[in-house]
Design brief:
alpha/beta; Aminopeptidase; Aminopeptidase i, Domain 2; nine-stranded mixed β-sheet; six-stranded antiparallel β-sheet; globular
């Protein structure tokens, strides 16, 4: 069963809407290259659209009525938006959940050193990457430095046109005979991903003068001491801006499509609800998915469950733990994460008729996991049947997919974690080429169809 190409279905008005959404998304990518920046951006957008902080209602004990719009900011790294519906929470809510962390390189807590008149920073890569893809390219520094006095310094270097960029050097081809004989996984090692930060000695300094120059710049620009790096979170990301890709401008090239394309579509969907929905709707943007959804801001933490408890307490005459369990089990969710797009240049890794093809709409993965469906959520057939009707009734282009050949590899999402509550969950996302590379590729049509699909799900699930 071959699904139609979405581009063939559009009229002029839809093409104009597609381009407007794509332009907005490119700005979202450029403004949110880290999970912290995504949360900051989302809070600003949410408040501009009438959302208020749930903590304010909790502190005052203010009851929440259908139509209320609230958000929960989780340590500045994860966020949830709730638009309260007409039905009681015990009948479940409609959730679109994505993640806002992306593969990157993190600077270590004791990072700086000098070697042969260069100053470097030690690093530890985050998530699954091909390490050789990160050398010999322009990189930027994003993050925060938390000082002992409680102040937090925001750091962004490498994004403005006049900013310097940093990077990781590679060995010249003329001396690479030994390097070129290694496996791709060994060409660049994890300890070889150190960031070159400076190359000029500070006048008057005899001991590590280039490192001294680096520290003097950080002190002058940010009032940061070397010791402050012990409580810093600095991420190294591509300095590139998101761009139209292809001579026909049908695609977008950028850093962080996985999974910010789905987080953007999820946010757009909940903001499009201009009337009180039948069921409460939630846009859930989580952190730490790329490393197993661990930690206080990963999906394995209890912040979603805690938020549901607080909402029940503010919307129900009597709160009970039983009602919370009923509410969680009755939820309906799209775990919105990207899928591997079929690449004709690497066709041997895919089983084509069960692969996501760029331009054919939002894709649904009944299961993910690895060989034998290990570590997977596996959605119920009845739930998929209901979703098919919602998609077709709303004229949405969609397709089904698996993540490559059965024994080729695989991956996971947050779906299996949410399924532990007993709710209905399926993976739904956008096909991506060059996934987990510094720059990835998506189709504008798939982004457009994802926004439409997530909106229809919130209104009709």
């Amino acid at each position: 069963m071959e699904r139609p190409n979405a581009w063939k279905t559009y009229n002029e008005a839809q093409l104009a809407e597609l381009e407007a959404i794509s332009k907005k998304y490119r700005a979202y990518l450029d403004n949110g290259k880290t999970e912290r920046e995504c949360v900051t951006e989302t809070v600003a957008i949410a408040e501009a659209n009438g959302y208020t902080n749930l903590n304010d209602a909790i502190k005052t004990g203010t009851p929440l009525q259908p139509g209320a719009k609230v958000y929960v900011n989780c340590m500045g790294k994860a966020i949830m938006l709730f638009h309260l519906g007409k039905a009681p929470l015990t009948e479940g809510i409609n959730i679109v959940g994505a993640h806002i962390d992306s593969p990157r390189i993190d600077i270590k807590q004791n990072p700086f050193y000098e070697d042969t008149d260069f100053a470097y920073a030690d690093t530890h890569y985050y998530g699954g990457i091909k390490k050789y893809q990160w050398v010999a390219r322009a990189l930027a520094l994003h993050g925060v430095v938390a000082k002992k006095d409680g102040t937090v310094v925001d750091v962004v270097i490498g994004e403005d046109a006049d900013d310097p960029v940093v990077g990781i050097s590679d060995l010249l081809i003329h001396l690479s005979a030994e390097q070129m004989g290694k496996k791709a996984s060994e060409v660049i090692t994890g300890e070889g991903l150190d960031i070159m930060l400076a190359g000029r000695p500070l006048e008057g300094e005899e001991k590590e003068p280039v490192k001294a120059m680096l520290l003097s710049i950080l002190k002058e620009k940010y009032d940061i001491e070397e010791e402050d790096m012990l409580s810093a979170e600095i991420e190294v990301v591509p300095a590139d801006k998101a761009r139209d890709y292809g001579l026909d401008r049908s695609m977008i090239l950028g850093y962080g499509h996985d999974d910010r394309v789905c987080s953007f579509a999820s946010l757009e969907a909940i903001l499009s609800l201009t009337e009180t929905p039948d069921y409460t709707c939630c846009c859930l943007l989580a952190d730490k998915e790329e490393i197993g959804s661990v930690g206080a801001t990963g999906m394995q933490a209890k912040y979603f469950e805690n938020a549901m408890a607080e909402l029940l307490n503010l919307t129900s005459p009597v709160y009970s733990e039983l009602n919370l369990r009923r509410a969680l089990a009755a939820c309906r969710m799209l775990s919105c994460d990207v899928s591997a797009g079929f690449d004709p240049l690497y066709a041997g890794a895919f089983e084509k008729k069960n692969a996501a093809i760029l331009g054919r709409g939002v894709c649904y993965n009944k299961f993910t996991g690895r060989g034998g469906k290990g570590g997977s959520n596996d959605a119920n057939a009845e739930y998929i049947g209901r979703l098919r009707k919602i998609m077709d009734d709303n004229n949405i282009c969609w397709q089904t997919a698996e993540l490559g050949k059965v024994d080729q590899g695989g991956g996971g999402t947050i779906a299996y974690i949410c399924a532990l509550y007993g709710m209905e969950v399926i993976d739904s996302g956008v096909a991506v080429l060059s996934m987990h590379a510094p720059l990835e590729v998506i189709s504008k049509a798939d982004l457009y169809e994802a926004v439409k699909a997530y909106t229809a799900f919130m209104k009709n699930a």
